[in-house]
């Protein structure tokens, strides 16, 4: 593994030696492709393109993120920003690499969550866009454009993660392959029409199984929080360490989102035929803005337990807000004054 790690550091060194504009590009890509964007941006926008596609994006996103946490707990992947110090590479050979505010991820490094979760969750959206393109064009280039964009995005995300010293190249490749496999495998199995009880049970199962596994590994003598200790020790700036990069934040996000799907499934929704094209556009814009505000309301908390609880509640509120509240609000605002309500 040391050979792979050393080669990865050298590759990151080459990437970081590029021009300043390229540095800004990589930092923008890694920030925009943060897994939480699947829940806060991609889901609200995809939902009003097609309800089933939106639910698929969210469902595959939360399942793949939960699996990513489990993989990381078992694979014990190093991260470049601390490995260069722990390995003594800096002392033996001169290495010209540096950290960024987004470098200091506190979870284990393998496989890349950015690549795995984004790749899996965007699969149903790319598939839907490919089908739409096929219905409206006979051009092979147009039909292949969504998957070409998907491939380029995954490549850019992977390179950005190596650039910021968050992952080694082999972790990126593993994340890309796992994400594509999960997207393909889960796409046809999205529980879009399941009952609120199913999603509520899923939420409880995701949360309790992760807690039980964490406690079991500790009982077995495994230092499961080793990555948090190393990240804290070797992060260049303590202010760059964030609770939202901890594995349990991901678990709370996933369990909360599953509960949110239960709340959305149990809430009355306007029939699709009542949502004209401009209604859906307005709903998408308003939902994305509302979810953004929801996640900006709560400031950074200093206590981990409070942070986990707040994350769970925010992500539980998101799907209900998108699927139930926003469409009814848009229809209410669009209804002419004095017009009778539709039954």
What features would you describe in this structure?
- The chain is globular.
- The longest helix is centred in the C-terminal third of the chain and has 31 residues, at 304-334.
- With 343 residues, the protein is mainly α.
- The mean pLDDT is 89.
- It has 15 helices and no strands.
Q: Give the % helix.
A: over 70%
Radius of gyration from CA coordinates:
21 Å
Q: Strand-residue fraction?
A: under 5%
Helix and strand run: HHHHHHHHHHHHHHH
> Main β-sheet, in a few words?
none
Low-pLDDT residue spans: none
Average residue pLDDT: 89
Number of strands: 0
- Taken from the alpha-carbon principal axes, the silhouette is globular
Number of helices: 15
Distance N terminus to C terminus? 64 Å
Structural class: mainly alpha
A few lines on this structure:
The protein is 72% helix and 0% strand. The protein has helices at 2-16, 20-32, 36-47, 51-75, 80-86, 89-92, 113-121, 123-136, 140-163, 169-187, 196-219, 226-234, 247-265, 277-297, 304-334.
Q: What's the layout of helices and strands?
A:
Elements (H helix, E strand, L loop, with lengths): L1 H15 L3 H13 L3 H12 L3 H25 L4 H7 L2 H4 L20 H9 L1 H14 L3 H24 L5 H19 L8 H24 L6 H9 L12 H19 L11 H21 L6 H31 L9
Name its key features.
mainly alpha; about 70% helix; globular; single chain; about 0% strand
